[in-house]
Every structure is written in structure tokens, then in C-alpha cells.
């Protein structure tokens, strides 16, 4: 029997990094939108979103993840989340669990888009109670619309 941890460990060994969404973020900014990066301010808690634009000063945050140097919190209507794996119900397997707590805690619910690679599709990710399915999953090969996220 596969466990969620075993699926994640197997997927993390794939020889590639996260799907790069920087060009999409730049296009969104160019069309007048705002972009924020997820920032872990406390482990095992929802992330905050801090305003980002190309060229702003950055610093190293928790787990050596680059974050904006200035804390300018935005509450987005939609989020893009990288994924290690995903299933046909729209559930996302991520890298650590902090990001998943954010849509679960948000009111109103954030429109959630998972981004990754098509060959990361799994029969199930064995979702936990705090897991929220993505509204949409975009891969390098296709777009997966989720029938009815809960």
C-alpha cells in the first residue's frame, strides 16, 4: 500500500525542479495586475503573501526560500501553487504542507491553480482533512479542470 509520504518521496526524486511561473507573473504585472509571493512566517501555519515585482530587494526566508525584503501583505483572489503530483480530483501533492493550509484557511476560498508536469499525475494523493482541491491544474501539456472542488 502506498502512503502519501512514499508518493511524495518518489516524486521528489524526479530530475527536475518546480514549474517556473515567472513569465506568467511578469505578464500579469504588465497587464496591470499585482503579484505576491507566498512567505512562510510560521511553520505549520498558513503562508502570507508579500507583494513582489522584478528587481525588488529580496532576502532569505525559512528553508532558504527567497522572499521580498519588505513585508507588504496582499490577499490574492487567486493563487498558483507548484506541485509534485496531482490526482483527477484536483488534489495537489506539494513539498511540505505549509502552502496547503492557506487555501483551507482562507475566507472566501481562494481560486487555486496547480502548476506542474503532466507526468506527475497520480491515481490519488491520499488527501488529508486540510487538503483542498485545486480549481485548475495546468501542466506542460494540458489543462485539467476540476469538476467541483469542495
Secondary structure elements and pairings:
Blueprint lengths: L3 H9 L9 H9 L4 E5 L8 E5 L5 E3 L5 E3 L9 E5 L2 E2 L5 E2 L4 H8 L5 E6 L19 E4 L3 E3 L5
What attributes does this structure have?
150 residues; alpha/beta; four-stranded mixed beta sheet; disordered N terminus
Beta-strand level of the residues, as a percent range?
25-35%
Structural class: alpha/beta
- Name the overall outline: globular
Report the span from N to C terminus: 26 Å
Please compute the radius of gyration using only Cα atoms: 15 Å
Give the proportion of residues in helices: 10-25%
Arrangement of strands in the largest sheet: 5-8-9-10
Low-confidence stretches: 1-16
Q: Largest beta sheet, briefly? A: 4 strands, mixed
The total count of strands amounts to 10
Mean pLDDT reading: 80
Order of helices and strands: HHEEEEEEEHEEE
Count, helices: 3
Briefly say what this structure is:
With 150 residues, the protein is an alpha/beta fold. Helix content is 17%, strand content 25%. It has helices at residues 4-12, 22-30, 98-105; strands at residues 35-39, 48-52, 58-60, 66-68, 78-82, 85-86, 92-93, 111-116, 136-139, 143-145.
Description:
It is a single chain. This protein is of the alpha/beta class and 150 residues long. It has a domain at 4-32 and 76-145. The chain has helices at residues 4-12, 22-30, 98-105; strands at 35-39, 48-52, 58-60, 66-68, 78-82, 85-86, 92-93, 111-116, 136-139, 143-145. A 4-stranded mixed β-sheet has the order 5-8-9-10, with no helix packed on it. Strands 1-2 form a two-stranded antiparallel ribbon. It has a two-stranded antiparallel ribbon with strand order 3-4. The longest helix is centred in the N-terminal third of the chain and has 9 residues, at 4-12. It is globular. It starts with a helix and ends in a 5-residue tail after the last strand. Mean pLDDT is 80; it is low at 1-16.
Amino acid at each position: 500500500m502506498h502512503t502519501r509520504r512514499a508518493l511524495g518521496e518518489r516524486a521528489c526524486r524526479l530530475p527536475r525542479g518546480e514549474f517556473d511561473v515567472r513569465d506568467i507573473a511578469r505578464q500579469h504585472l504588465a497587464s496591470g495586475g499585482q503579484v505576491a509571493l507566498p512567505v512562510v512566517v510560521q511553520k505549520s501555519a498558513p503562508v502570507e503573501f508579500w507583494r513582489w515585482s522584478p528587481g525588488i530587494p529580496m532576502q532569505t526566508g525559512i528553508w532558504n526560500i527567497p522572499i521580498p525584503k519588505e513585508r507588504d501583505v496582499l490577499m490574492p483572489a487567486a493563487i498558483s501553487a507548484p506541485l509534485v503530483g496531482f490526482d483527477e480530483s484536483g488534489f495537489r501533492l506539494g513539498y511540505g504542507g505549509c502552502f496547503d493550509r492557506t487555501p483551507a484557511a482562507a475566507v472566501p476560498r481562494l481560486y487555486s491553480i496547480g502548476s506542474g508536469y503532466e507526468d506527475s499525475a497520480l491515481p490519488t494523493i491520499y488527501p488529508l482533512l486540510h487538503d483542498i482541491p485545486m480549481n485548475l491544474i495546468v501542466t506542460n501539456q494540458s489543462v485539467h479542470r476540476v469538476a467541483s472542488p469542495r
